[in-house]
Amino acid sequence: MELFGTAGIRGPVADTVTPELALDVGRAVGVEAETVVLGRDGRQSGTALVGAVEAGLTSAGASVVRLGQVPTPALAAASRGRYGVMLTASHNPPADNGIKLFADGVEFDSDAESRIESRVEDGVRSAEWADWGESRGADILRGYREEVADFARGHGDDLDGLTVAVDCGNGMASLATPQVIRALGGAVRALNANVDSHFDARGSKPTPETLTGLCDFVAGHETVELGIGHDGDADRIVIVDGEGEMVHEDTVLAILAEHYVRASESVDPVVLTTPNASGRIDERVQAAGGRVERIALGALHEGIAEIRAQDDRGTEVVFAAEPWKHIHPALGGWIDGVASAAVVARLVAAQGLDTLREPVTERPYLKSEVTCPDGLKRAAMADLETRLPDTYPEADVSTDYGVRLSFEDGSWTLVRPSGTEPYVRVYVESDDAQAMLADVKSVIGDAVETVD
Question: What does pTM read for this prediction?
Answer without folding.
Answer: 0.93
